[in-house]
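Example 3.
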Amino acid sequence: MNYPLADNLFDDDVMLEPIRAGFGRGLKKAGEKNDQIVALCADLTESTQMHLFRDAFPERFIEVGIAEQNLVTVASGLARAGKIPFTSSYAAFSPGRNWEQIRTTIALNNQPVKIVGSHAGVSVGPDGATHQMLEDIALMRVLPNMVVIAPGDSVEAEKATLAMAEHNTPCYLRLAREKTPVFSTEASPFEIGKAYVLREGADVGLVGTGAMSYQLLAAAEILARQGIEARVVHVPTIKPLDETVIIETAQKTGRLVTAEEAQAAGGLGGAVAELLGEKLPVPLNRIGVRDRFGESGSPAELMEHFRLTGETIVEDLQDWLRDTPRYHQG
Amino acid sequence: MGELTTVQLEKKANDIRRAIINMLKEAGSGHSAGPLGLADIFSALYFSILSIRPKEPEWDDRDVLFLSNGHCVPVQYAAMAEAGYFDKSELKTLRKLGSRLQGHPEREKLPGLENTSGPLGSGLSQASGYAYSLQYLDKVSHRFVYVVMGDGELDEGNIWEAAMFAGKYKLSQLVAIIDRNNIQIDGTTEDVMPLEDLRGKWESFGWHVLEIDGHNVESVIDACSQARAVSNRPTVIIAHTIPGKGVDFMEYNYKWHGMPPNAEQAKEALHDLRTLGGQITHEGQGV
């Protein structure tokens, strides 16, 4: 384990930044490196942070208006003409509204269009359930050819954007609106398809994606004070899933917890359950939104309400940790 | 190519129709009316209008044809085989396991296809993306992007999103052809969801609109020439066609939208086509 973490992780002055900010920076850098990169937006250019690219490369930015079906299908045509298109909108609209177009003209057609869905999760806040996309991971994860990435923080989002730009397949990038702690560093690795062990421990495996990986680190700190050492694994790429690291974690700890700010059904929790079911059926506890929609509230209130913070996770895991024996092979 | 006479192009269209009937009979499923109605347009496209190299499907300087109404792909397969993209014997594999000729077109399966389609309403956007790239990103003015659409699929909202987009960006290298055959699965287009005033709709979206007889290959060629000459707007050609054209018992009958002929019907259809609807009375004697 040699994943460099920010050194003031649990201090009040931990750096906070929206994950989408890293995408904005990364896209601009990708545009500097490769003049075939083009960007399309559906009337949300600043919200999705695409304005950084637009201002740097106005001739390579295409405004399509509030038309998400057109957004991704025009991108498919641009890709056929040799371009590497990035599309952005809110995840609730893209891939929420245009999933069939993505399926047929991008995934089946196998064009390297990068679909960027911002404002995912309940932490969107007061806008409420309509705008809090929770089903995107499940929707995108089942598409053949599609890569699905939910970066943990803004620093990783920048790296993920640059990696997607060089990855010759369709990709989905999941972003969030609110500021969240930056737990990785410039030196932390990011590779599509790789999961990273953030903390070692043998008593339970905590496996997270997106900003929830930070909450798992926080949970692990609290658990450590209770005498429970957790191995924390960050899974920025949900598809293809890093089966090696997850199975290794299941073997070492004998029981796993997944965490995501999304529907656990079909999300990371679903992916890990499928893997464990086939390869190593250790006890599994899936933390996420369970078969319900979000609602209005402040982001912090909602994370608490949906039990998605380090503290609530530890509270909710107490009985399970006490009653669930660790699985031992053989 | 591009040197065929009108009579030769009409002959190609007839050959394409016969190939369609044979393919569909072999497949035992598929759409009859649309592909037959589009045969003249596809003959004009593949043998006169498009600048293409069938032996070099990814030729950098080619014109690009997107098929939006993917269920009509038998007409494209037949035209491609006739043009030499692949051997005609492969046509009988249509819709069969392992075939490159999928029931609806898949770009990665068959070189020469530019897109994957079937679910309706997405082809115009894809063509618009390509045309945008030529006009604004690559600044290549001698290549053109054609898209063939059905009229029924104009019910889809995605089409009108694309119509606004192409209008806004004045995609002058984009040529859309609407197969205006007036039928869709549940009945006539005007009963299911009226499209008229169709010309007015496209004009109001900023398009140059032409209306032609889609069975007159000279009209198709002329309209495309005009479209290429219009340099400040995209062009849409509303091509009036007869569904099932060339086969008497299929013409105008929407029931043939999604059905293939059985062996007996195919025999009758091929007879119709060989004799040009009975105009030739002595079949097999020098025709």
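The first strand of chain A starts at residue 16 and ends at 18. The two ends of chain A are 27 Å apart (CA to CA).
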